[in-house]
Amino acid sequence: MRVTSKWFILSRLTKKRGGAIMINIFTLSHAMLHPFSTEGKIDPFEFKKIPKWHPYRSIWTLHSRVLERNSRTFPFKFDESALRSSRHRRYDRGESLVDTAVTAHQLELLQLSVLSSANVDGYIVEIGSYRGVTTAHLASETSKTIYAVDPFMGYGGADEDYNIFERNTRNISNINHIRLPSGSAAVDFKGDISLLFIDAVHDFSNSWFDFCAWSPKVAANGFIAMHDVDDFPGVGKTCQLINSLPAYSIWAYAPNIVIFQKS
Ligand SMILES: C[S@@+](CC[C@H](N)C(=O)[O-])C[C@H]1O[C@@H](n2cnc3c(N)ncnc32)[C@H](O)[C@@H]1O
């Protein structure tokens, strides 16, 4: 996919002069990583398997920190003109819910996207399912299979979360748990997706990787929901990149969630 090239990312992330040093570090670290892979194709989770002292891991850490710092230095927020075209809009988050960071209005929009994706062929996939609260709500709106992808290890995932996930979802027949990290699950996943909900690790490297790994499986007219777009600058950057791609338009927005539709 052309959009994953380093020049695509560089041209959109570093428009101001203050980014010059970061561009140099980015280019240097990218040149060193390039023999192994290209931007957006590197699974950040795979680096957890490499010892901390290994130079490849250090270069990667530097590389992703530069990208993250860049997201903070030049933060992105959807402005009114970008959001004007969105078909569904909530102006505040709504109430908090128990055991999930997804709020009432965000959930409302997610459920709306489940209903609207009924006529699109494909499964529903949630990347990062935590305690399964949102998963269960989504499952209640559809008879489609929902694949909940969560390894419950690393990046905060824990046995306790896994047990609660099991309890919250075990009696729901259309939820299938894939206990793998996003990258490995994407490699094995067969079939189209009508709604993809990305809500795993909230930095640029991970969220952009998740988008690059899964978006080719999303069917035409299908949806991609991104949580934490406003609270985490790296996710905001990923959404900025998605929004600049001609195939995607904003379909719904509430503070901290955006849902794109693919043409
Ligand atoms: C913010 S929580 C997800 C919240 C959930 N979507 C909800 O609505 O309640 C993030 C989850 O991502 C999981 N996670 C971490 N790394 C992951 C990866 N590489 N692939 C998939 N999930 C991952 C963690 O185990 C954690 O449970």
Task: Outline the structure in words.
Pfam families: Methyltransf_24. This is O-methyltransferase YrrM. InterPro entries: SAM-dependent_MTases_sf (IPR029063). The chain has 10 helices and 8 strands. It is an alpha/beta fold and 263 residues long. It has 2 domains: 72 residues, no CATH class; 182 residues, Vaccinia Virus protein VP39 (Rossmann fold, 3-Layer(aba) Sandwich), CATH 3.40.50.150. Strands 1-7-8-6-5-2-3-4 form an 8-stranded mixed sheet, with helices on both faces. Strand 2, helix 6 and strand 3 form a beta-alpha-beta unit. The two termini are 16 Å apart. The model has no long low-confidence stretch (mean pLDDT 89). The structure holds S-adenosylmethionine (SAM). The site of S-adenosylmethionine has 25 residues, from strand 2 and helix 6.
Ligand inventory? S-adenosylmethionine
Q: Based on helices, strands and strand pairing, what is the structural class?
A: alpha/beta
The CATH C-level name of the largest domain is Alpha Beta
Named at the architecture level, the CATH assignment of the largest domain is 3-Layer(aba) Sandwich
CATH H-level name of the largest domain... which superfamily? Vaccinia Virus protein VP39
